[in-house]
Amino acid sequence: MSGSNPTNRIFSGVQPTGGLHLGNYLGAIRNWVRLQKDYECIFCVVDMHAITVWQDPVALRKATHEVAAAYIACGIDPEENILFHQSANPNHAELAWIFNCVARMGWLNRMTQFKDKAGKNRENASTGLFVYPNLMAADILAYKATHVPVGEDQKQHLELTRDIATKFNNDFGAEDFFPLPEPVIQKEAARIMSLRDGAKKMSKSDPSEYSRLIMTDGPDEIAQKLRKAKTDPEPLPSEMDGLEDRPEARNLVSIYAALQDIDDATALSRVAGKQFKDFKEELTDVAVTKLGPIGDEMKRLMAAPDHIEAILHKGGERAREISEPILRDVYDIVGFVGR
Ligand code: TYM
Fold first, then answer.
1. CA-proximal residue: ligand 1, atom 36 (nearest)
2. How far is residue 170's CA from residue 211's CA, in Å, rounded to a whole number?
3. Per-residue model confidence as pLDDT tens digits over 291-306
4. What is the pLDDT of residues 316-338, one digit of tens each?
5. Can you give the three-state secondary structure of 169-210, one letter per residue?
6. Which CATH code of 2.30.42.10, 1.10.240.10, 2.40.50.140, 3.50.30.30 fits the domain covering 209-299?
7. Element (H, E) at 45
8. Between 20 and 30 A from 188 (CA), which of 151, 202, 220, 262?
9. Most ligand 1 atoms within 8 A of CB, residue of 43, 49, 66, 153 to mutate
10. Model-level pTM greater than 0.70?
11. Which residues have CB under 8 Å from 77's CB, separation 6+?
């Protein structure tokens, strides 16, 4: 068996399915940038997850470049960390197959993301969408990652990953072979809501473009979307309690806070008593200041897709160097004659 388990290895990823939005940034990528100093980090563009629902091939390739560009533009260093696209390392798919045979139908039937994405037409959902969480477990465990920084919506999938790791270790008598990875979910901005409906999370699949800020939005788009963001007629309160039952106001205050790296209560104290018209102008300034340079850098990087692909391919090789010995152990544990 190859060596001892790591203690501080991060794996996380984003799907290349359309424009990267503020929720992805505030809920996930922003935190990765902080964590890269203290952890050995593997950041992935999860293109194999993306195709669990139909993707236009040309758009998929472009979106893969875009997510990689976003990682770099947000401050992920591709030399210090591993940055790659999932399909570059076949170990993910190989381990996912084994996990398809470990995870139980009943576990997957409980996944709320499958229910949301498949909607009423479950019969017509791809089988890939159903076993999506097994691939996600494989992403993480192929590297024996110990920490997984994500937004709140991925918590259930991480619990399933731990269940799969536990069952694999038990079934095969391989005590402690897979570590039980810890979710790293920041309290602030763990769940950014739609700008049109404070009860729905901000999401790439929302049909309304006004529901989300995209990382490449320019100042005019940011201003327009925030002007149109749903609010209520009351001015902003001075205490957090006053935001209860006001989900849209609460969401805008959280965004305002997260963009400035301050807590919600401090942010609220800065804008207490303001009407939404004035608050939205201030929020626009903050958003343009923070997102503008990231969006510009993304556009600059995306103008050189060959450079991005070179980074991704090199990252894929480095990723495989870590996962290959782990897969070899897995094959041995399962009883395959081996590679
Ligand atoms: P995805 O592509 O939907 O989202 C990427 C990251 O952004 C976070 N996020 C949000 N955070 C706060 N508010 C929101 N409205 C919001 N929307 C999205 C997500 O929590 C996520 O951290 N299954 C994953 C991708 C994945 C993965 C993995 C993640 C595949 N394999 C292994 C970690 C480890 C997904 O669909 O994320």
1. 15
2. 45
3. 999 999 999 999 999 9
4. 999 999 999 999 999 999 999 98
5. HHHCCCCCCCCCCEEECCCCCCCCECCCCCCCECCCCCCCHH
6. 1.10.240.10
7. strand 40-45
8. 220
9. 153
10. yes
11. 36
